[in-house]
Amino acid sequence: MIFRILEDQYAERAKAEKAAKAAAAADLRFMQLALTLGRRGLGRTGTNPAVGAVLVKDGRIVGRGWTEVGGRPHAEIGALARAGEAARGATLYVTLEPCSHFGRSPPCADAIIAAGVARVVSAIEDPNPLVGGQGHAKLRAAGISVDLGLCAEEAARDHAGHLLRVRERRPHVVLKLAVSTDDKIAAAGHQPVAITGEAARARVHLLRAQSDAILVGIGTVLADDPELNVRLPGMASQSPIRVVLDRSLRIPGDSKLVHSARTTPLWLMASEVAEAASAMRLGAAGAQVIHVAERHGAPGLDLAAALTVLSEKGVTRLLVEGGARVARGFVEAGLVDEIWLLRGADPIGADGVDALDGLLLTAITQAPGWRARDSERLGPDTLTIYEPV
Questions:
Q1: Which residues are registered as beta bridge partners of 341?
Q2: How many Cβ atoms are within 10 Å of 167's Cβ, its own excluded?
Q3: pTM of the model
């Protein structure tokens, strides 16, 4: 008899463990879907974080949402609207704590309560002092079960721009470097040369589309005359704001950037003593001139100050594309949060331009302060993503 009881207890325990594992696997699957949905809004939601949300009832998805263009409606509101009455008793998976304050729209937490949602699985807490745990507290006070922390690392990475803007008053900075096998980014005399293939270039254009702004130095503009837009089919409208560090406003009036300033925003960051006549001329062409303090004891603009200004203007995700001096400046100032290192299949030669303006690339690839997070092949090229340790 005793053995029968023990066998029954073991079977019940095994059954409960199996059910718990299945529930955990389902939670993970739905949260990962919410993260994927949230990424649809990257680079398009203004100062609002690109949140994803999924409503699930009886194992079936009844609503999905993501923060829409311009930041409204929020992901939770979109998911609730698609679910309708099916939201009652459902579980909501959301990549960031639902807001609890009145802004341009009512609090998402109130909408979740009113819809009768039974459980909320939230990836991370929002550090915004207007939220900061209050959204979760409001849900719990209404009797809703709240689980916090699932896929927290992935969510923090997706919301890095929002988190840094709140905590440090600067955007999340991604530095993109396309280098040859001998660590060069251009031929002699800064002449541009194709380093990577079509697959790698397509990935870079997707990264541009997921950024609020793209930044280069005036040297890159003078050497390459770039457009800095998104050239993927059907995605031209997702081109980011173009930012040029141009201390003395040397950008040519006939450059591609200035010519397109009325269709895609162009911000020129200049010294506070840059010529007023040049600023007026460029402003008349559609560019916006932003004055930034210079570095103390060294030529050039104060990069930290420039990031603060960009953050105040709503930029949360900044892609830095060059050139070598700008890249080195951001790395040495400790203002880089990710480095996308694209390595082509061919060398350029000893007379080419070093990727970091004389600073060895091993300062990233072999430095204890950096680690390779991801690596993949893109045709003949390799992409490695580094992040600070």
A1: 177, 384
A2: 10
A3: 0.91
